[in-house]
């Protein structure tokens, strides 16, 4: 099939490359000419394991091409995939201006009947609006081509995007007729051994499924984060609680990690967008409002652990930070908890020495004007002379760190672990003050609070 993918971000570039890998003729288009220039040299504009190699392979086989000429992209393919960004507006609603501007271009340049597949995450009703815009422009041009709209939300995870795309656990497709369903089935058949993994639904349900899935995952994270705070003061251990919960097949083990709160390009904006969609039709999604609130609190809760340790005196302190990307395996800094924490450390007068294996280039763009932030390739260098180490992203290399070297480099042997990558008992043995999430904190005050709980229960029964 000849496919043009509009937008070469994480979704457009990865899916376009994977469609080429499966034998389609793919033209990826973007208004960012510099990005296209780099792609034509085989350089990926962001880090995603294995992507650059797959781009080069498919480009050399002449199945994958790049262009900044949007008209060419619209004219040359029978299927147009919209994969542009849908960021949050100030009020939390989805900014659909990029999607709608693509719809306008499609209307302007369409030269035959086309399938228009919306891959961007869009609120329910958007595909219909895209069709209306295209048809309005076609009418104004006095032409009458057929527009077959498809909703095909993307579920790839940054850091594992190729695997998710080439071997999808499920494909959701919203269609309006059998003909389009057959075309999409043919397109996705090479990706799945079992076609029952491709779920065909109506367009509205497809659009909603994407938000519902992300909202559910965000809910699990916020639930665990809130629970972790209770664990901290009662003496329970959130990691063991998680293990026990995850063994229940009704619950499953995924997305139950307590930490510094979720971030990234999807969860924060998608949760907000769903809340806003509901509000627009006079409905309040109170669970999701709490999910969002708990997430904000969790960033602050972690920051407060550091602040309390230093008795509120962060002025002049140097904080080493391991991890900037919102999760391991990506250089994506959108809504990264690390950025929010850096902002708070700076506000309270501290300096930050941050290290990340991949995200430094993006971080330099965002933080170069901050004189109190230094960025390091080597995560050991970031420790030199720091008053504390704060771990924000669970990169695998941090787990294998030489903790004796960490101890020798830090001014104080204290680690705040926002991702629970070490065992408290081992850290205590090594002589660290180790403060993590959802566990007895290893500090005198918290220990005392923890033993109050059984006493309170006992008193209740005696009285
Ligand atoms: N990033 C993810 O992990 C992920 C996962 C699933 C779904 N999504 C959804 O996919 C969509 C795209 O996300 P992303 O992270 O890939 O976005 P992105 O911001 O990384 O990339 C968007 C690209 O679109 C280009 N663009 C904007 N307007 C254009 C136009 N008129 N014509 C051509 N190109 C244009 C931009 O230059 C940019 O390169 C969003 O709706 C997002 O919610 C993202």
Strand order in space, largest sheet:
3-2-1-4-5-6
**The CATH class of the largest domain:** Alpha Beta
By DSSP, the count of extended strands is 14
How far is the first residue's CA from the last residue's CA?
Answer: 77 Å
**Helicity, in percent?**
40-55%
Name of the CATH superfamily of the largest domain: NAD(P)-binding Rossmann-like Domain
Q: Could you say which overall geometry the principal axes of the C-alpha atoms support?
A: globular
Helix/strand class = alpha/beta
Number of domains: 2
Q: What radius of gyration results from the CA coordinates?
A: 25 Å
InterPro entries: 6-PGluconate_DH-like_C_sf, NAD(P)-bd_dom_sf, UDP-Glc/GDP-Man, UDP-Glc/GDP-Man_DH_C, UDP-Glc/GDP-Man_DH_C_sf, UDP-Glc/GDP-Man_DH_dimer, UDP-Glc/GDP-Man_DH_N, UDPglc_DH_bac
Organism: Bdellovibrio svalbardensis
EC number: 1.1.1.22
Catalytic activity: UDP-alpha-D-glucose + 2 NAD(+) + H2O = UDP-alpha-D-glucuronate + 2 NADH + 3 H(+)
């Amino acid at each position: 099939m000849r496919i043009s993918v509009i937008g070469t971000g994480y979704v457009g570039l990865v899916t376009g490359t994977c469609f080429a890998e499966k034998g389609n003729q793919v033209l990826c288009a973007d208004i960012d000419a510099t990005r296209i220039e780099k792609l034509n040299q085989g350089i990926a504009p962001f880090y995603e394991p294995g992507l650059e190699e797959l781009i080069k392979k498919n480009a050399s086989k002449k199945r994958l091409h790049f262009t900044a000429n949007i008209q060419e992209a619209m004219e040359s393919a029978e299927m147009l995939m919209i994969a542009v960004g849908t960021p949050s507006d100030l009020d939390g609603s989805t900014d659909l201006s990029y999607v709608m501007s693509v719809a306008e271009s499609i209307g302007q340049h369409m030269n035959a009947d086309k399938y228009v597949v919306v891959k961007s995450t869009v609120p329910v009703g958007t595909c219909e609006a895209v069709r209306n815009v295209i048809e309005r422009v076609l009418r104004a041009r006095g032409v009458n081509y057929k527009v077959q709209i498809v909703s095909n939300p993307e579920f790839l995870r940054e850091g594992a995007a190729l695997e998710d795309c080439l071997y999808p656990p499920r494909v959701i497709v919203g269609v309006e007729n059998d003909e389009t369903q057959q075309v999409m089935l043919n397109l996705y058949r090479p990706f799945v051994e079992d076609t029952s993994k491709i779920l065909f639904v109506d367009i509205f349900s497809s659009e909603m499924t994407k938000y519902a899935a992300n909202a559910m995952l965000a809910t699990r994270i916020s639930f665990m984060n809130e629970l972790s705070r209770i664990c901290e003061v009662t003496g329970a251990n959130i990691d063991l609680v998680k293990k026990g919960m995850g063994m229940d097949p009704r619950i499953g083990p995924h997305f139950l990690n307590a930490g510094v709160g979720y971030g990234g390009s999807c969860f924060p904006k998608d949760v907000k967008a769903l809340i806003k969609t509901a509000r627009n039709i006079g409905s309040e999604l109170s669970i999701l409002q709490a999910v969002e609130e708990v997430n904000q609190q969790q960033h602050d809760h972690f920051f407060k652990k550091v602040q309390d340790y230093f008795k509120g005196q962060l002025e002049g302190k140097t904080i080493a930070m391991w991890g900037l990307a919102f999760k391991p395996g990506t250089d994506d800094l959108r809504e990264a908890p690390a950025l929010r924490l850096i902002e708070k450390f700076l506000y309270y007068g501290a300096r930050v020495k941050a290290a990340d294996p991949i995200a430094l280039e993006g971080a330099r763009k965002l933080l170069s004007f901050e004189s109190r932030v230094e960025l390091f390739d080597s995560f050991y260098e970031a420790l030199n002379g720091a008053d504390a180490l704060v771990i924000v992203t669970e990169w695998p290399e941090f787990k294998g760190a030489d903790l004796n070297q960490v101890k020798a480099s830090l001014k104080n042997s204290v680690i705040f672990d926002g991702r629970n990558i070490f065992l408290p008992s081992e850290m205590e043995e090594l002589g660290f003050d180790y403060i993590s999430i959802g566990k007895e904190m290893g500090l005198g005050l918290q220990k005392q609070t923890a033993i109050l709980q059984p006493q309170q229960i006992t008193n209740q029964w005696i009285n």
